[in-house]
């Protein structure tokens, strides 16, 4: 049986849920807060330590009050989307969302029209975003990178390491985060590398260590299912006669007979035969093959295009001077035979696609390709003395990387809530010029929302008079803000208190836009026993239902 809530009851329920979830997330806002310990009976081991608002929201699957739970889940989806795409800004988005919904709810309860208010809020949001964009500056030095990361994670060692990595690799650099030991570590890879699987460890027999160095290598890049032994023998013979010292074959699969032939080849002293299978999803595998062909100057041979092993010619193969392979990756250090002009053209095309794409997974694949084609990559090794501490630092570093990357691509803004506060003058001007009731209400709500993150930051830091500080910032010079660590008004950029412009703009869009939409919900139809949505935004793929709530 379904439970139906209409109009005032539904808005009260939504507000209760929004306030509850925001109350768990907003305390993480600012540099003077600690992690939240999440004790979950379904998890094994020690409690999870979190200081990331988006991840905290994701871990909250359902409130005890099932009516309020609807509002919490609407906010949950907004915060996780912010976290996934930008790495930072979820707590700011929560503060904006909560303030706009609370003030809008008060106006609608007094007789205002929710739809007209939503339209006015969305129009005002565009003005606020324009004001934020006018304040954007580009990151110019590694020191600014370091200060930005420090503002996100509060860990000087992590900030210094990431600034070093991105100063070398650039904004699209391929950076992976892995579990390490008790201390933070990092490793640079010259050239480009790919994830892969070795179908047989025969090739590692007789080698010392886990990594094989390859010189003067030919590359067969394909989606073949290799089972033609005679064609393989012919290809190896041609490659040896051409003077190559090794041959690497990428294929979809290798038969037992082909793998046995690799074992026979492993006894040759002056020639190395390597088999590799690409890993990842289909689009990731296709991207890997295309990039490898560009770098080595080879061709991607596909069964669907009519290519076959017995028709492989020497001019179809790629080449490299220095390469390496281990059990999980392979890479090219130098000497790829690809055309540099063609590679630069492909990089430019990928960067254009990246700038236009709004899908985060698509952007991730594009980012990987750009970094790979530019050459150079790095691995950051997270640290910790326990499983929960290691997990915490991995999340922290991953979030800091996403924030720094977006800031390098789209610039920075004054931090500490200062950039939003600088919008107040324009919002007040628009309020004074407006004569429409709903427009005036929207401008008032946006003025309060612009102050909300700054007030929350000061409150979290234990400041006794947030309102006084807010007035000083708004009346101060452009770029002024309150440095919570120093305890005084400063020029935020000069003192390194900055936010990623992309993350803050998105937090404004997600927080204000999401709340404006939620204000128009009149009716909630809640099912008695809906399945849990483990991931924000929808049910598990195995769930028979199409959804757990209906909004009208």
What does this structure look like?
- The chain is of the alpha/beta class and 552 residues long.
- Helix content is 49%, strand content 18%.
- It contains 18 helices and 21 strands.
- It has helices spanning 8-25, 53-59, 66-86, 90-109, 114-133, 142-153, 156-169, 229-241, 256-265, 282-296, 340-356, 360-374, 387-410, 418-421, 424-433, 437-460, 466-475, 501-518; strands at 3-6, 36-38, 48-50, 174-179, 185-189, 192-197, 212-222, 225-226, 246-250, 253-254, 272-278, 300-301, 318-325, 329-334, 377-382, 412-414, 480-483, 488-491, 498-500, 523-526, 549-551.
- A hairpin with a 3-residue loop joins strand 13 (318-325) and strand 14.
- Helix 3 (66-86) crosses helix 4, helix 5 (114-133) packs antiparallel against helix 18 and helix 11 (340-356) runs antiparallel to helix 12 (360-374).
The rounded distance between the terminal residues' Cα atoms is 18 Å
Characterize the main sheet.
6 strands, mixed, barrel
Low-confidence stretches: 539-552
Helix content: 40-55%
Strand content: 15-25%
Strand order within the widest sheet? 6-11-9-7-13-14
User: What value does the Rg take, in angstroms?
Assistant: 28 Å
Overall mean pLDDT: 85
Count of individual beta strands: 21
Please supply descriptive tags for the structure shown above.
3-stranded antiparallel sheet, disordered C terminus, 552 residues, elongated, alpha/beta, single chain, 6-stranded mixed β-barrel, 21 strands
